[in-house]
């Protein structure tokens, strides 16, 4: 490897397994000092196993952190650990997520709260704790002769949060919210030259492992997903965290094998003048119908052969 990230300090959540581990491995391989943050819960967010973080950290020569980051105090402890051991924090990758699927008319509000807390609030807590340190580092010129222009935040989102998917109200809402958080983070930290981007991965994960296909389209989607290694996602995240990545912020990227997508972002595509309530629905239908977004799920939208 090239030592692209030599001397940089990184936190990766959900780094004990799957995509998170692949990202941690890639950052370590490029010289970064990494904290593997993973509470070792099941994909449903139940239980916990500190050995998940410990064993991965030991294998990578990293530091383990096995507490859940889904509270402001724990997120601060994690950032403090990076500062104590590495002298600062340069990279944050929010990857940790849980999944509790149910149709909206059957969902348990407690499951909704747990998913939002783990998949969205935890990311905010960590960004909140780390970004202040990053801004202070910018003022002090951490590690650069020509001024500190670092600070990289990468949020792992999902196509489910962009397209929607059956039974994934909590998961999709959290991931859509995480993209909104990415945009605002990029805006709030632009003057400090800290970047924030979102990456939607397509790869074999614990999420794809537990898919129980309900139809042929879902079966073929799962079969294709099982072919795609997480290292492709890790490569894109590493690129965003590199020195050249300073020019990329507020963007939404997708990674599917050797394919990298730049997603468009919601902007108005048509306009009309509103009428009365009695006529407006009809006007909307006649004026916008050919540009309405259909109810294609993310599984259907990406049900084609990937480049692997």
What are the SSEs and their pairings?
Blueprint: E1 9-13, H1 18-29, E2 33-37, H2 50-60, E3 63-65, H3 72-86, E4 91-94, H4 109-140, E5 152-156, H5 160-163, H6 169-188, E6 195-202, H7 206-209, H8 216-225, H9 231-241, E7 252-256, E8 259-262, H10 277-288, H11 298-301
Helix pairs in contact: 1-9, 3-4, 4-6
Mind explaining what this structure looks like?
The protein is of the alpha/beta class. It has one domain: NAD(P)-binding Rossmann-like Domain (Rossmann fold). Helices cover 44% and strands 13% of the residues. It has eleven helices and eight strands. An eight-stranded mixed β-sheet has the order 3-2-1-4-5-6-7-8, with helices on both faces. Helix 1 (18-29) packs across helix 9 (231-241) and helix 4 packs parallel to helix 6. It is globular, with a radius of gyration of 20 Å. The chain starts with 8 loop residues before the first strand and ends in a 7-residue tail after the last helix.
Summarize the structure.
The chain contains eleven helices and eight strands.
Total of helices: 11
Q: How many DSSP E strands? A: 8
For this structure, the CATH topology is Rossmann fold
- Quaternary form: single chain
CATH-defined architecture: 3-Layer(aba) Sandwich
N- to C-terminal separation?
22 Å
Residue-averaged pLDDT:
93
- What structural category do the secondary elements indicate? alpha/beta
The radius of gyration over CA amounts to 20 Å
The share of residues in helices is 40-55%
The residue ranges in which pLDDT falls below 50 over 5 or more consecutive positions are: none
């Amino acid at each position: 490897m090239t030592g692209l990230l030599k001397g940089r300090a990184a936190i990766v959540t959900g780094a004990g397994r799957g995509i998170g581990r692949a990202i941690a491995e890639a950052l370590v391989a490029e010289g970064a000092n990494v904290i593997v943050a993973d509470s070792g819960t099941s994909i449903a967010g139940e239980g916990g196993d500190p050995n998940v973080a410990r064993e991965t950290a030991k294998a990578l020569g990293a530091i383990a952190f096995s507490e859940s980051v889904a509270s402001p105090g724990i997120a601060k402890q994690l950032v403090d650990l990076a500062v104590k051991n590495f002298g600062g924090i340069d990279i944050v990758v929010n990857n940790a997520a849980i999944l509790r699927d149910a149709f909206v008319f059957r969902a348990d509000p407690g499951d909704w709260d747990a998913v939002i807390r783990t998949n969205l609030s935890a990311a905010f807590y960590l960004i909140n704790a780390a970004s202040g340190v990053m801004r202070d580092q910018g003022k002090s010129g951490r590690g650069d002769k020509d001024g500190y222009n670092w600070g990289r935040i990468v949020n792992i989102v999902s196509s489910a949060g962009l397209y929607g998917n059956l039974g994934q109200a909590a998961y999709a809402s959290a991931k859509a919210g995480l993209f909104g958080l990415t945009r605002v983070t990029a805006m709030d930290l632009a003057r400090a030259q800290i970047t924030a981007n979102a990456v939607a991965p397509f790869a074999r994960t614990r999420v794809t492992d537990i898919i129980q296909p309900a139809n042929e389209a879902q079966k073929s989607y799962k079969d294709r997903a099982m072919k795609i290694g997480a290292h492709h996602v890790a490569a894109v995240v590493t690129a965003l965290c590199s020195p050249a990545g300073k020019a990329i912020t507020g963007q939404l990227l997708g990674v599917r094998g050797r394919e990298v997508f730049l997603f468009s972002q919601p902007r108005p595509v048509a306009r009309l003048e509103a009428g009365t309530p009695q006529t407006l629905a009809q006007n909307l239908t006649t004026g916008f119908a050919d540009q309405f977004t259909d109810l294609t799920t993310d599984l259907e939208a990406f049900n084609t052969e990937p480049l692997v």
